[in-house]
Design goal:
alpha/beta, two-stranded antiparallel sheet
């Protein structure tokens, strides 16, 4: 059953935004060459990303024309992980750990040498098995997309996750982004399992492939749904071939409604989202609910369709943030909005990916906002729900 929407008014600037800023200021990773890139310090402050927002084609940006990352593609060798210890790492609140990052590339020879650039954010000094969150950008294709949305990766890593941002490049002739994006995620996880994704030298742990989540904005939200099991086959109730069973939970930011990227909705029980059986947290801007990025779709409640049609097999959440449009939900929103999105996804992943018993699931989606407000809806799983008793 679904709880009644709760309205959360703005309060004083919370610790979430402050801690997210502190993690960036505290980072001191040297610029040493590692297996797949150069480690570098994070910015001294969490300023909004200046990547241009989605402005062309439905939920797509024009391909980025800047020069691609020039790190030499490498698919051999092992990642630099330091002296990891045994045991699973317990996650923490945003801002707990200092953060280091490293960039690199891997090449998928099976797809005509498709290059996937990535940026890893990792908690400094953490040892043991560390949960993972993958992040996909929006837009049609961008070889530098792994450099965007750093407020997400930095926040996740500061809370004890390895966060990996992927660049989903422009698709080659004869292939499609709807196919390439989820394939990029699966290939990167394969490379991570093989030890071919570089880690910052100051990270002493191991990425835990048994605890993996995915989040993404716009076309990245499609990517979350695709690897999370949504059906894009056009066949009712038939799972898409893009499902990756290593993904434990998803957090689509600005998700698509029906009739885009292969999604469909014909009746209450015949949709693309009834095959998403894992926990999901949808985040939607109030100003984008009924339209896609360029206004070519105009349907009341369009972006609300996924949450409304999840099958009830797992806990689900939906936050609607007042006054926010499509680009605000990525990088042009106010600092407190960016901190809210990153922090609430972190708490969601702590519960449903990391299995952290110290986080109360009833607090997911109730973080602090100062420039606006948000509403929260929960969908409690029919069995084994962690939120059925929430007020």
């Amino acid at each position: 059953m679904r709880s009644t929407p709760r309205h959360h008014r703005a309060r004083l600037v919370g610790s979430l935004a402050t801690l997210a800023l502190l993690v960036l200021a505290a980072c001191s990773e040297p610029s040493a060459v590692v297996t797949r890139g150069s480690a570098s310090t994070l910015p001294a402050s969490m300023t909004p990303d200046t990547t241009a927002p989605d402005t062309t084609a439905p939920d797509m940006t024009a391909p980025d024309t800047t020069a691609p990352d020039t790190t030499t593609p490498d698919t051999t060798g092992s990642a630099t992980t330091g002296s990891a210890t045994t045991g699973s790492v317990t996650t923490a609140a945003a801002g707990t750990y200092e953060v280091a990052r490293v960039v690199g590339q891997v090449v998928d020879d099976a797809r005509a040498g498709r290059v996937i650039s990535y940026q890893v954010y990792a908690p400094i000094g953490v040892a043991g098995d560390v949960p993972v969150v993958l992040v996909s950008h929006g837009g049609f294709g961008n070889p530098r997309g792994h450099l965007a949305g750093e407020h997400l990766g930095a926040t996740f890593a500061s809370g004890g996750f390895v966060a990996i941002h992927l660049a989903h490049d422009v698709s080659a002739a004869g292939s499609r982004q709807v196919d390439d994006r989820p394939a990029d995620v699966t290939f990167l996880l394969d490379q991570l399992a093989a030890g071919r994704i570089a880690m910052p030298p100051s990270f002493a742990g191991r990425p835990d492939l048994d605890r993996v989540g995915h989040t993404g904005h716009s076309y990245g939200a499609y990517t979350s749904h695709a690897v999370g099991g949504a059906s894009y086959t056009g066949s009712p109730g038939v799972a898409s071939p893009f499902r990756d069973d290593r993904i434990d939970a998803i957090a689509p930011i600005s998700p698509q409604g029906p009739d885009q990227f292969g999604t469909f909705l014909r009746s209450a029980d015949d949709t693309s989202w009834t095959t998403v059986t894992i926990p999901a947290y949808d985040l939607v801007g109030e100003a984008e609910i009924s339209t896609n990025a360029t206004g070519t779709v105009q349907q009341p409640g369009w972006r609300l369709a996924p949450f409304d049609h999840y099958p009830g097999t797992s806990d689900t959440f939906r936050s609607i943030i007042a006054g926010q449009d499509h680009s605000d939900m990525w990088t042009s929103g106010a600092p407190d909005v960016q901190a809210f999105i990153a922090g609430e996804i972190l708490d969601f992943m702590r519960v449903y990916v990391a299995g952290d018993p110290t986080v109360d699931p009833c607090t997911i989606g109730v973080g602090e906002l100062t420039s606006t407000s948000a509403t929260l809806e929960r969908g409690a799983a029919t069995t084994g729900s962690r939120v059925s008793g929430c007020a």
